Amino acid sequence: MGPFDLKDKVAVVTGGARGIGAAAVKLLERAGAHAESLDLETGCDVTDEGAVKDALALIEKRRGGIDILVNNAGRAVRKPAAELSGEEWDQVLDVILKALFLCSRTAYGHMKKRGGGSIVNLASIMGFSGGIFPNASYQASKGGVVNLTRALALEWAADNVRVNAVAPTFVKTDLTVPIFSNPEVLQAVMRHTPLGRLPEPDEIAAAIVYLCSPAARCITGITLPVDSGYLAR
Questions:
Q1: CA 26 to chain centre
Q2: Which residues, other chains included, contact 28 with Cβ-Cβ below 8 Å and sequence gap of 6+?
Q3: In whole angstroms, what is the distance from residue 142 CA to residue 126 CA?
Q4: What is the DSSP letter of 231?
Q5: pLDDT truncated to tens, each residue of the chain (233 aa)?
Q6: How far are the Cα atoms of 5, 21, 46, 47, 96 from residue 39, in angstroms, in the given order?
Q7: Is 14 in contact with 71 (CB distance < 8 Å)?
Q8: What is the rounded CA–CA span in Å between residue 20 and residue 37?
Q9: Are 102 and 130 spatial neighbours (Cβ–Cβ below 8 Å)?
Q10: CA end-to-end distance (rounded Å), the chain
Q11: What are phi and psi of 97, to 5 degrees?
Q12: If we measure between CA atoms, which residue out of 173, 167, 170, 227 comes closest to residue 195?
């Protein structure tokens, strides 16, 4: 087996129908894995604990086990904090943080039976930064992802379950349409992008697959920025 070979590994990607999630599904399959998507489009609400348990149990029954989980499902409400409702706050944290916890805790049980596994969470540069635009619930949730990644990595290391995260900068997906469709806003983003180019979903997927692969077998508890230099400032 090569350092990036995931032949016959079973991978689950939340929010895998589009954007970074869809790119991750495609690249995991190219690496040899059997990749399954969990999202509303495939009939699973990842904020619903019962639905998550049922979905992962079904995948285990069909595929024989679960080796990889990519927690990619996301949501954003971009508005000033003073205008953000409690309901909107809950919606963002439920999808980004609560769902990550529920999916990870459930997948951990399946991975433990297999003798180990790999979980990769989608954090963000906003987990390390106050950001450029008002986005308090997203920034708070992604900060939570960074530290929850550390906590779970330490707790599950003895069971050979590695937990890492990837922290993208702005990437063209459904969540960032308001940014990429506004030239002035995009110009503000580029002022914080030393390399002068923003990553594509495939490039975030490449970092995810690396962290899932045997090449990263001694890496756990880290958050890897794919940010074109944003956090170096």
A1: 15
A2: 6, 11, 13, 35, 68, 70, 205, 208, 209, 212
A3: 6
A4: G
A5: 789 999 999 999 999 999 999 999 999 999 999 999 999 988 999 999 999 999 999 999 999 999 999 999 999 999 999 999 999 999 999 999 999 999 999 999 999 999 999 999 999 999 999 999 999 999 999 999 999 999 999 999 999 999 999 999 999 988 888 888 999 999 999 999 999 999 999 999 999 999 999 999 999 999 999 999 999 98
A6: 26, 10, 7, 10, 13
A7: yes
A8: 12
A9: no
A10: 39
A11: -105, -50
A12: 227
Amino acid present at 182: N
- What's the token pair of residue 83? 């205008």
Structure tokens at 12: 């689950």
210 included as an active-site residue: no
- Reference 213, options 112, 118, 121; nearest CA is 118
Using alpha carbons, list the distances in angstroms from residue 52 to 27, 98, 142. Answer: 23, 12, 21
Give the active site residue among 108, 138, 210, 230: 138
Q: Which H or E element spans position 71?
A: strand 68-71
- Tokens 């900060």 belong to 143
What is the total residue count of the chain?
Answer: 233
